[in-house]
Structure formats: C-alpha cells, structure tokens
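Hi C.,

You asked whether I'd gotten around to modeling the 458-residue construct. I have! Everything is below, sequence then structure, no commentary in between.
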Amino acid sequence: MVGILGASGTGLGVAVNQYEPVLAEGSIVGVVPVGGLSPEAATKRVRLWWESERTKKTIFKSSVLSELPPTQRWDHIGLGVDDIESIAQVPLQDFWASSQFRVNLKQPAKTVYPVVFVVADDKVAALSDFVRERQPAKGSARAVWSKGAVVRTPERPGLKLNDEGYRAEIVSAFQESRAIDIPLTEGDKRIPDAELNKIQNSMAAYSTRFSAGNRPRSSNIALAARKINGFVLMPGEKFSFNGVVGPRTLKAGYRIAGVLVQGRLDEGVGGGICQVSTTLYNAALLANLKMIERKNHSSSVPYVPIGRDCAVSYGQLDLVIENTMPHPVAFASSVGAGTIEFRVLGIKVPGQEVTIERSRAQSWSRGVKYEHDPSLPYGRVRLVDKGGTAHKVTTWRVVKVNGKVVKREALGESYYPGAPRLLAKNMRAKPPAAATPATVAPAQNESTPAPSPVDADN
C-alpha cells in the first residue's frame, strides 16, 4: 500500500512539475473566451479577433464642423489593440485549481476583462489638423453704440480637438457600434464674457465733418471707420491704428483721394483716413486714455482745431492708444452724410469732465517760392500751390472730478511747418522791348503739381 501511495505521489509530483500555467477558467477578454488557454494561445486568439474587427468601417459626427472626415476603417483612424497587455491582466490558474475543474466538472464563474485599446498619436494629430482647418470662423468680441445704448457681441473663440476625450470616445464608439462624436473644446477667449459685460456706457464722444460730395474720400473714411468699430481693448493693452486698419491699398478697397505731402495737397490711395485717426484721437483724449504715439500733420487741417489733429501713414506714422482703465473699453464709430463720430465705451467716471486747452499758439507766413517754367512768357507767373501758414502750439488735457482739477497733462507741442506759396515763372525769359507788369495767371490756368511721396493720409 505504501508502495502504491509512493508511486502515486511520485506521479503527481511529476505532473505538478510539468504543469504549464493557463489563464483562469471562465476568463473572457472583451468578447473573446480565453479561460484555460496558455498566455501565448490566448494572445493569438485576441489578435485573430481584432484582425476581423479592425477592417470594419465607422463614421464621424459633429454639430459644429462644416465638414466631416470620410467613412474609414477603425485601424485607419488609429484604433488598435494591445493583445499582450489585454492578456496580462488575466490571472493564471495553478495545477490544483485546474484539477478541481476537471475532477468535479465544476463550471467556472465568468469574469470579463476589458480589451486594452491603443490610439495612434499621428492619427490623433491628423484629426486635430482637420478640425483646425474646418472649424467655424472665429469672431472677435465687439461692443458698439446703437440707438443710445451699448450692444455687445461675445467672442467666438477657435475650436480644437480634445485629444484625450477623442481617445476615450473612439474606444467607446467601437465598443457600442456607433458613430464617433468628435469632442471639441473652445480655445481661450482674448475677451472673456464677464469682462466684455463691464462695458456699460459711453465715456466720451467726438465728431468731425467732411464733404460727402467727395466720394473717394468719403469711401475711405467709411471703410477705415468700419474696421475700428466695436474694437475692444483690455486693461493695459495698446491699440495701433495701422495695425487694425491695415495697409491702404486699392486691393483692400481704398480709393485715391487728397492727401497732405510736406504741407501741400496731393493725391494718394487712402486719402481721408487721417480724419478717422484724428476723430478717434480726440474721443480717446476726452475719455482720458493714454496716448503712446501721435504726430501732427505738416500743415493744419480744417476739421479740428490746431494741435488736435493726428496724422497717420502706414509703416511711417501711427496712432497708438493705451487703455489705462481698470476695465475694458471699446471704440465705436458711426459715419453719416458728411459726419464721422467716435465714442469710447466703458464705464463712465461719475462727475468726471475732460477738456482740451491750448497755449503758446504762434502762426507765421512761409513766404513765396518760385519754380522755373520755360513755357511762360516773360513777366507772367502761374500759381502752383497756395502753400500753408506755419503754426506752433502746446496742447493740454485737463481732468476735473466734481469741478475740481485732478490732472493737468501736457500733450506736447505741435509744429506745423506749412509750405511757402509756390509760383511758377520763366526764369530765363528776356523782357520784351516794352516790359509789362507781372501778373498772377487766372485760376483757370492753374495746374496740379506733380505727385510727391505721401507722408500722411490726410
């Protein structure tokens, strides 16, 4: 008997030693039964299952994108299975547990383990690019003045793919046999809604007049004003007129109109835009905003007092304004029949009054200058340009609160060199036998001077 037991024990020991562990009975990975299989065999079974699934196709959906990716196979959009890791999570079963199931014919309890999916980084990046190219147009926050009230439009920020959300969504969509709902997130807003809502009323307004009959100039004024209308400036930010209005070109819609060139009236693309910058400059002054950059014209302009104009020329002269308020402000424009107005919108300071004063104003003539015109007879002159008077003035901003002066600020000295009256005559003509007095040619004989480089959009 002892011998028999000894022999049995020896055989059992050999069986135990030769036993290769298998996965726990009743184990299922996803929908693949793997219980009782070796890890290698179970891994192969999961791999074969995925080979039959990966070629199936899926579709995308989104309520936001203007275009969706085409129908594609699951593996082509980057979904894959890590078969080794999927099996590694299933516990192994020892010899004694296996023997129990064989001897007692006991049905094991089923235990389901999830398939370990992977999503390729390059496919996620490709979808991210797709979203960026086909998202709805972005929209800046705006605040305008309409019917005596502020009207605000919240910012529409850019959208981007929620990468981690997409990785989870693609797995869920596969498991649930449904379309992939592309998860999107909004980018950060430059102007948060809560900040935009702080723009409540009109802080200051200024208007100037122009000739509505001058269609090219009127068109330029309206176009530039529209580009600025509604622009919101956060605390500490700087507004660049040239940066917002952009280059003055025919392609951009600007037309040829009168401009000031070294104190003389000429023509150039975008003529009239200086009236837009000047009107905005004055509104910003009255709103007590900080002026970072401003230059006056080479000659005085008729639509504002001397010392209160602002010359701009793309790439050369700019108007730069800083918002020093603790809240956002917006620039609102309106252009009517011969009138342009700018308002600065924000939070009006109770009891505050801002006025602009001038001191040390001086004016003087630039005299007369002659140029040679061989076509004129002796003693005859022709008016080329009427020129402009020279001026110099210092401008101040005075801020009062409840009638008390709280700030008197020097805005700087404006110097207008003007230009001499320009006449043409024949410098080499010899006097006739009987000389005649020199006279100025009638106005109908005057001609336009040759074009010169533009130094300001008058």
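If it helps when you're writing up: Residues 198-445 form one domain.

Thanks,
B.
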